């Protein structure tokens, strides 16, 4: 369950790295602009998370009970309801993107490039959310190979389109010379492809499940209420986590656009590390949900612990690689000395927190599979808002320390998230919660 999902997500993150590679060929300002937009953009991802986490519990437990009619209904409502929520999110972003952007930079070129990239991505947010829903539906019924194949093909498509749309010449061929707009359009095309193909396969029938297109236009209050309430703690957690990302970027921005660019590149590299982890987590959480739906609590607990150790081992491998080759990694995306220097420091110091975070996230699939999502809220609030952000405030605003101390704060935040996740897992309330 986890391996195909990990492979699919790794390919998806790989095209994010390729995006950044080509964007780096434009300028340091382009990297900074896209990095600022991405941080703001993912605040709205909390809306996706609320419904997405709820749908994992509802679909996997319904499927575990072999209630295919209920499974179909939840899938239909997840796609339709998330599409509507994404429209709301798009409108909010379109209205407030520019004023929020100006909080992080007063450099005209950074602002212009970031907005040019961002407005295109925002317009297709509903398609992006719906594509996530379809892939989640496949995994929740035990089919992780289909979304893997779709994600691989869409990623390759994006990688091919990037240089063609961004530059005036690609090898011996003539390109469209659209700059950062070309990178956004390439991503949009790949997301539309992923949505259309996944939608067709899912609604044609798979694993005993066959949703109905006509039912997409009918909202079911009972299911929609659960889609909001079950994942609300988790969605609020993601909102607070992503808002903490905005605060972190604010502190980073005090050191200039080169440090913003270094942080953006480092984050994308870490994102590539997290994709195999999230693959394991998403595949395992579906197994936990199906196990709890069949009242196999011991099996669910065993799966959670195995996931914790798997994510830790995978993280350790990546940590060693990143520490050894950090300079080579940053150098792929920028030849600016200051960007490279700060990026290397970010990777080498903040990376150690991943070992703690990986295990904490691994065992937390017990919360996702059961629908008991309150622990995620505490994990985010305590680790980011009570530990890391106050540390950053003192580093930047009070003592005005070098940026390296900003990077070290990530380790403290990740360690605290590990402590909180273990506390709630051992407390065991997730074992008796059902949706």
UniProtKB/TrEMBL annotation:
This is Multidrug-efflux transporter. CDD domains: MATE_NorM_like. InterPro entries: MATE_fam, MATE_MdtK, MdtK-like. It comes from the Bacteria. The chain crosses the membrane at residues 20-44, 79-97, 117-137, 149-167, 179-206, 272-294, 306-326, 346-367, 404-425. It is a multi-pass membrane protein. The lineage of its organism: Bacteria, Thermotogati, Thermotogota, Thermotogae, Thermotogales. It is found in: Cell membrane. The keyword Ion transport applies. The keyword Transmembrane applies.
